[in-house]
Design brief:
Strand content: 25-35%
CATH topology: minor pseudopilin epsh fold
Oligomer: single chain
Largest sheet: 5 strands, antiparallel
Radius of gyration: 27 Å
Number of strands: 9
Helix content: 25-40%
Structural class: alpha+beta
CATH superfamily: minor pseudopilin epsh domain
Length: about 200
């Protein structure tokens, strides 16, 4: 039995330095490729999450409007000093004196800041195209998207467009009853798998 163990020890070999360096090089190369793919995909994931968050907040705000018996809305505007491609959003509530931010401890109605590098286009049914302006300090404009206390919404679509390429990234569409449709690249969900 002693002779078998001795012969096994003679036949075992370790990795050479060159083999170890080659393995380390391959691992580093694969890790860097994976991190590059994850890095470029994170912007897409963040943008998609923002579109879904806006849809969820519109639904939540519609429920809040119905429960409170008071109209609510979303005012989208350009952010001053951030270049042409930066937008913000204010959640508003209709009071007797006009539209103002909701007086609530609810943090759900925090101001929106849309991701830089996108252009937003808002189309509302039977209305002219919507222009986004920078908010003046004393101005109190009404929201473009109104969520009525009766459970209706101004039907429309909000597009996220890549500022550099002009490609349509996402469309969020809603109907009169606040049903949301999330459309990557503007493609209807039923059309995704069709050739």
């Amino acid at each position: 039995m002693g002779d078998g163990c001795t012969s096994m020890r003679r036949h075992q070999k370790g990795f050479s330095l060159i083999e170890m360096l080659a393995v380390v090089f391959v691992v580093v190369l694969l890790t860097s490729l994976v991190s590059l793919n994850v890095g470029s995909g994170s912007a897409d994931i963040n943008r998609e999450n923002q579109v879904r968050d806006v849809a969820a907040m519109l639904g939540y705000t519609l429920t809040e409007a119905e429960l409170s018996g008071t109209d609510h809305g979303l005012l989208i505007h350009r952010l001053d000093g951030f270049g042409d491609g930066s937008y913000g959003g204010l959640w508003l509530r209709r009071y007797d004196q006009g539209w103002a931010e909701p007086l609530s401890l609810n943090t759900a109605f925090e101001d929106l800041v849309f991701e830089p590098g996108v252009e937003l286009e808002l189309r509302l049914e039977e209305q002219p195209p919507v222009d986004f302006d920078v908010l003046e300090e004393d101005a109190n404009p009404p929201p473009q998207i109104i969520l009525f206390a009766g459970g209706e919404v101004t039907p429309g679509e909000l597009d996220w467009i890549d500022e550099r390429s002009g490609d349509l990234l996402y469309t969020l569409r809603w109907d009169l009853f606040g049903r949301m449709t999330f459309m990557p690249r503007g493609i209807e969900p039923d059309d995704v798998f069709e050739d």
